[in-house]
Amino acid sequence: MEPRGMKKWRPFATMPEQYIGLKEMINKQAEVAQPVLTEEQMEQMNFTLIEALHTNKQVYLTYYKQGRCMTETGFIQFVDSLGDLFIFIDDVFELKNKMRLSELIDVRLA
Predict the structure, then answer these.
(1) How far apart are CA 36 and CA 74, in angstroms?
(2) C-alpha gyration radius of the chain
(3) What predicted TM-score, i.e. pTM, was given to this entire model?
(4) How many CB atoms neighbour CB 15 within 10 A?
(5) Residue 80 in contact with residue 12, Cβ under 8 Å?
(6) What angle do CA 65, 69, 73 make, to 5 degrees?
(7) Per-residue pLDDT tens over the stretch 70-100
(8) How many helices (H) and strands (E) does the chain have?
């Protein structure tokens, strides 16, 4: 009797693509629209960012990225209100991250 080898598994060759497609569909369903902030909320975040920058306090940053709201902790290193960006050092890997102020949803002191 001759062994069947890999011929036996050929019908299941499309399964990884199906799992990738299902994962994409689930991720699309989990997406949320970017929240619209009021002037008062943006002003409060700006004050909190500047306070954290000058006192070197740790902050919780909530931001919108690719359809999701994410939260990280870190230290603010630089804020440029006119250029719409800021730089923070994350708490976990101590990496510098550039981010647009328009992506920011909430800032709280830790």
Answers:
(1) 24
(2) 22
(3) 0.70
(4) 10
(5) no
(6) 95
(7) 999 999 998 888 888 899 998 888 889 898 9
(8) 2, 5
